[in-house]
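Hello,

I think I submitted the 3,4-dihydroxyphenylalanine job twice by accident. Can you confirm which output corresponds to this input? Input:
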Amino acid sequence: MTAPENKPAQTLAALGAAQPEQVVALFTEILARFDADSAVARDEGSWKHLRDTWLGRKSGVLTQITDNWLKPATSELKRVVGQELNKLRAHVEAQIEARKLAIEAGSDESALARERVDLSLPGVTRPVGSHHLIRQVFQQIEDIFVSIGFSVVEGPEIETPYYNFEALNIPEFHPVRDDMDTFYIDLPEGAPTPLLLRTHTSPMQIRTMEKRQPPVRVIVPGKVYRRDNPDATHSFAFHQVEGLAVDTDITFCDFTGTIEYFVKEFFGPGVKTRFRPSYFPFTEPSVEFDVTCVFCGGSGVSAGGGTCSKCKGAGWIELFGAGMVDPAVYGFVHYDPKKVSGFAFGIGIDRLAMLKYGIDDIQVFFQNDLRFLRQFP
Ligand code: DAH
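Support: Only one job matched these inputs. Its output is below.
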């Protein structure tokens, strides 16, 4: 802060000041220097530095002036040096005190401004997310089946061919495998078994029966994979809910009753249902389950009068595959096919959601477009 040439460190004689006017001029110069120093002391730290520089007992500017100018002054100059020094001291002390008060007031004010809380401002609202439509449909299905005594289990998405195919009565060269081409994991040479992304949730039938004895009543929500090219109804990843009920006395009537109950709960009591014979290696007999078209009410005629585009005029929509568990499957899990019977079904969730909510492209489920997702809060 102080100038490089430090005049207070030298005597008046050394500074060549022999006349009172020269002394007064020197004091005027020092006072100006103080004012400049004092103007930049705006916070506590710089204020302390100012105080120590000017009032420090050992080497403050005023002490230096006393030691170097006043004490050795000639008797002619002593009086004027004394007077000027007193004026300077009064000015310096008053200014330093004034700056202190100003800085304290300023910091109080800025602290107040900083901490002021405006209670009339609206709060910060954080957007609340919601479940994806697929997750919501899973939940609806789980609620319906849990209410009639099923429990929910989940299984691995990476499976062995044994669980995905063989134990479901689909041997290696069975033509059904053609519809279920999937993704295989690259494994090191000599791996004990190939691994694949499951093509359906049915492997969990096997895993569940291996672990539990009848009665078994489970549903299995989950993701499944196939090597399908993406279009409006195909995706390489999609969702299913598997169902399995096995006990000592389960009949085809229990099966139809359960499925019909589910469909009416899910789509509403107005829909009609029907079975068509079908084929799956792990069920016998196998059925394809249809509902009356939810868009045209089963008439096959659209609201505008033309053919309903959703069911193509049939009035029926194919919903999912199901059937009575093939006795061969029980052999893989060491159940006695003479003692137990049961049914199984596999529901495609994406398709179900598309039907229920009138969505015509499966790809929207995977694109994460908020304009779509926000329609299902
Ligand atoms: N797993 C079959 C598929 O993905 C669907 C299926 C059909 C599951 C009949 C079943 C069933 O449990 O009984 O194509």
